[in-house]
Write a structure and sequence with these properties.
The protein has a domain of 247 residues: Aspartate Aminotransferase, domain 2 (3-Layer(aba) Sandwich). 40% of the residues lie in helices and 14% in strands. Helix 2 packs antiparallel against helix 11 and helix 7 runs parallel beside helix 8.
């Protein structure tokens, strides 16, 4: 596979962009090799600058649930762009998209659109502190809630890839009110609340952790968080930037039957354009300016192009049979990958919720950040590169999530699982050779 153009472009990018990229995981640091510079995308396929085509399982990190350049989304954007790209004034598009979201998320009665998931979580926490008149926030190890200072504590994903427990430039004061706990461990949460019964403003959680690989909640875990927060008067915030419209059409909260106080959204609601949102009950959301004293603003919030793409996307996924077909494709991929690993006698833990999959080279079930980090990341590096050579584009980090879109076909999945069968055999053979040459210890 030729990658000369990508190599040249990467070298050029590093002269003017920090690390040659605008988001760290794109640099392939966790998997090695040259980041592929993408020229175009269509449906389930990416084409790089060297002309190589790949089956895309990154899907713009989950945003492209319809696949790339969906005809109705593109047509809507073409019409919208001729009317203007930004006004800095209200449009009916914002109200229309808000209604579509609220219709699917009963916990949301009012919503505020922003420009990113980071903005959404940062703003939701500010509102929670104002509502409860408390300062502390409880988060979970390996759950990533954007790069605001207070949330860069054991944040998973890119931070896990780079081995950073936090970030340089974040002061002790910025994180002094952030209390981390182990994901899927209710006892740890109870102990924190018992130690600080009147201090915790909110618990923020990815209801399905998707930034340490994909780690589903244990049975009754989310209900336990709901019960504890109610008992102690704290708000429960679901960060559904990834799981919103992915876990189900009503997000993880519909799938698991839990009603949080605040919900953060992003990705899919912008149809591939930059977007974020947070919402909840009237009494909480009415604290935000101009209705209340919590200030939050943004020049491009509610951008008409993002709203247009979001409206077109949510209309498409609301069509009868959409999620049933997506579930069928996702299950086919899960089963095919599992069979390929089992046939090669390679220990792999596969997790799936809706159209999201996690793949860990681990002997044991992965239920938290510690277990995720104990997985064999060197094996994932081999998997990624050998699959890439065969035209399969997986996430370039062992701590990210595999995404399936409506554009993926049975042929895409069969091609993927056939490639995986060969690659898992290669991994098994490599491990066998390494075991034979490893010196004995007496």
């Amino acid at each position: 596979m030729k990658v000369e153009r990508s190599r040249v472009l990467y070298a050029e990018a590093k002269r003017v962009l920090v690390g040659g990229v605008n988001s760290p995981v794109r640099a392939f640091m966790a998997v090695g090799g040259t980041p592929r510079f993408i020229r175009k995308a269509k449906g389930s396929k990416l084409t790089d600058e060297d002309g190589n085509r790949y089956v895309d399982y990154v899907c713009s990190w989950g945003a492209l649930i319809l696949g790339s350049t969906h005809a109705r989304v593109v047509a809507a954007l073409h019409a919208a762009i001729n009317r203007g790209t930004s006004y800095g004034a209200p449009t009916k598009l914002e109200t229309e998209l808000a209604k579509l979201v609220i219709d699917r998320f009963p916990s949301i009665r009012k919503i505020r659109f922003v420009n990113s998931g980071t903005e959404a979580t940062m703003s939701a926490l500010r509102v929670a502190r104002a509502y409860t008149k408390r300062n502390r926030v409880l988060k979970f190890e390996g759950c990533y809630h954007g790069h605001s200072d207070a949330m860069l504590v054991k944040g998973g994903s890119g931070m896990a890839t780079f081995g950073l427990p936090d970030s340089a430039g974040v002061t002790n004061g910025a994180t002094s009110d952030t209390v981390p706990a182990r994901y899927n461990d209710l006892d740890a949460v109870k102990l924190i609340f018992e130690a600080h019964p009147d201090e915790v403003a909110a618990v923020i959680v990815e209801p399905v952790a998707a930034n340490m690989g994909l780690v589903p909640p244990k049975p009754n875990y989310l209900q336990g968080l709901r019960d504890i927060t109610k008992k102690f008067g704290a708000l429960l915030i679901f960060d559904e930037v990834i799981t919103g419209f992915r876990a189900s059409i009503g997000g993880a909260q519909k799938l698991y039957g839990i009603k949080p106080d605040l919900t953060c959204l992003g990705k899919i609601i912008g149809g591939g354009l930059p977007v974020g949102a947070y919402g909840g009950a009237d009494e909480v959301m009415n604290l935000i300016a101009p209705s209340g004293p919590v200030y939050q603003a943004g020049t491009l919030s509610g951008n008409p192009l993002a709203m247009t793409a979001g409206i077109a996307t949510l209309r498409e996924i609301g069509r009868p049979g959409f999620y049933e077909k997506l579930e069928e494709t996702s299950a086919m991929l899960e089963n095919g990958l599992r069979a390929a690993a089992e046939n090669a006698h390679v220990d792999v833990q596969l997790t799936r919720v809706g159209s999201m999959l996690g793949l860990f080279f681990n002997h044991e079930a992965v239920v938290d950040y510690g277990k995720a980090k104990s997985s064999d990341t060197s094996a994932y590096k081999v998997l990624f590169n050998l699959m890439l050579e065969r035209g399969i584009y997986l996430p370039p980090s062992p701590f990210e999530t595999i995404f399936v879109s409506a554009a993926h076909t049975r042929e895409d999945v069969e091609r993927t699982t056939q490639a995986a069968a060969v690659v898992f055999q290669r991994i098994a053979k490599r491990r066998s050779v390494e075991a034979k040459i490893e010196p004995s210890v007496h």
